[in-house]
């Protein structure tokens, strides 16, 4: 399975609210950098982040998906509900780095619409 397919499968799990399956696609020491917001390091912290931020599964679309070696870049839109049930809409650009078929790092640029 190529890295674009791995990312697509992982994203399907998130869209279905199956965060544990999503985490199987990540390395134990995965590191996510949300530029201008926060850094999340390791699966345990990522699990906590997802439980904190994803009050309901996010709804997202991918406009562009580009793979180059161990890197995949995805652009698109994502909608999230906050703790009060209000929907927020964002544009995103995710730069993923893969190691041995797993997502090892993310550098995400997320801009509220």
TrEMBL record:
Family matches, as InterPro entries: NTF2-like_dom_sf, SnoaL-like
Residue ranges of every copy of the SnoaL-like domain listed in the record: 12-104
Keywords attached to this entry: Isomerase
Keyword Cell membrane: no
Pfam families assigned to the protein according to its UniProt record, in alphabetical order: SnoaL_2 (PF12680)
Record-level Gene Ontology MF annotations: isomerase activity
Entry's transmembrane regions: none
UniProt keyword annotation of Cell membrane present: no
PANTHER family: BLR2505 PROTEIN
Entry protein name: Ketosteroid isomerase-related protein
């Amino acid at each position: 399975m190529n890295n674009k397919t791995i990312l697509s499968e992982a994203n399907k799990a998130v869209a279905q609210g199956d965060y544990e399956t999503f985490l199987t696609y990540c390395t134990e020491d995965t590191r996510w950098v949300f530029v201008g917001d926060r850094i999340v390091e390791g699966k345990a912290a990522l699990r906590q982040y997802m439980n904190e931020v994803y009050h309901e599964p996010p709804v997202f679309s991918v406009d562009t998906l580009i793979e180059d070696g161990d890197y995949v870049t995805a652009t698109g839109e994502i909608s999230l509900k906050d703790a009060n049930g209000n929907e927020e809409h964002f544009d995103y650009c995710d730069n993923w780095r893969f190691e041995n078929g797993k997502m090892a790092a993310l550098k995400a640029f997320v801009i509220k619409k």
